[in-house]
Each structure stands twice: as structure tokens, then as C-alpha cells.
Amino acid sequence: MKTLDRFLIRHASGRDATRIAGIQIRSCQAACKGLVPETKLQEMDASRRAVEWKDALGTPCQQTVLVAMKGNRMAGFCTFSESTDPEAAPATAEIGSFFVDPLAWGRGAGRDLAEEVMGQAKRRGFSQITQWVIGANDRSRRFCESIGFAPDGVVKTEDISGCPVQELRYARRL
């Protein structure tokens, strides 16, 4: 556990599953507005996601899940692990999920999570970290760039709620 400026960053547990799922759904609905049909965004099911998160958090795996807390309120979460990209260079970590509750946007939770993830990745021997970002999501792209990430030219199409979305890979040296 590490306390940063305003947020306590700690490892997630199974007890956090419902709050993590809620943040993921609310953040995705806000960030993907206009990129994915509104009906698809409204179909996102937080209770189903909570069950998936509870299972994931209760299963030993190589993924680290961190949460940003302010008092008893969870502001966001982030996951990272060794890169799953087949062409990734050795010693590359990958941020798999990075969501901040829209009510906490611009308040430092994302920056605090990113600093802790990058610090932990570096201490574990990773020399680079990547993250996939929706190409049309200007807010996410600006945030990544503000913390030292840059697009590395790799693009893929990902399915979000049944809609194809172009994602850009962002990378940063640690």
C-alpha cells in the first residue's frame, strides 16, 4: 500500500469487485459516448461484471489490480501484467484496464494510479509499459500523453459491446 498526494493506492481484493465493476461500466459509458451506439452502452451489466471481477480477483494470476481510494470511496482502478502482445519486446509490461469514475475525472486518481503502476512495473524488472487506447477517445489519448506515453504506430480493431473500435498502442520507457 502506498499513499500518494490525495489517493491511497492499494491492491484490490474480492471485496472490491462490485465497486470495480461499477467504475468500469460508468467510465466506459461516459468515455465511449458517441463512439459506440447508446443502446449498447446501456446494455452493459454491472452485476455480471462484478461476478467476473470477483472470480478474477479470487484467482491467483499474473495480473496486478490496483485501486485508488479517497476515504471509503473508490475513484478508479488499473490492472497490469507482462505484455500479451506477441511482438512485444522482452521486459514489456502492459496496462490491461485503466478506469477512473467519471465523478473523479481530473482530480488526480488516474495520475496517482499511473505513477504507482509504473513504479511497480519498474521494480519488477520491466523496462517499458504499453497500453491500448481507443483512437477516437481524445480524453484518454491526452491523459496518456500527459504521463509520458506516446503512440508507437501499432493499431488494432477491438470489439466493444459488439461494435468494432480502432485502438492505438501507446508505450513508455520506464
Short description:
The protein has 174 residues and is an alpha+beta fold. The chain has one domain (2-173): 3-Layer(aba) Sandwich (Aminopeptidase), CATH 3.40.630.
Outline the structure in words.
- An eight-stranded mixed sheet has the order 1-2-3-4-5-6-8-7.
- It has one domain (2-173): 3-Layer(aba) Sandwich (Aminopeptidase).
- The longest helix has 15 residues, at 17-31.
- Helices cover 32% and strands 35% of the residues.
- Helix 1 packs across helix 3.
- The protein has 174 residues and is of the alpha+beta class.
- Residues 12-174 form the N-acetyltransferase domain.
- Keywords: Acyltransferase, Transferase.
Task: Break the fold down into its secondary structure elements and pairings.
Elements: E1 2-3, E2 8-11, H1 17-31, H2 38-42, H3 46-57, E3 64-70, E4 73-82, E5 92-100, H4 109-123, E6 128-134, H5 138-146, E7 150-160, E8 163-173
Parallel strand pairs: 5-6
Antiparallel strand pairs: 1-2, 2-3, 3-4, 4-5, 6-8, 7-8
Helix pairs in contact: 1-3
Pfam family, one: Acetyltransf_1
Domain N-acetyltransferase: 12-174
Organism: Luteolibacter flavescens
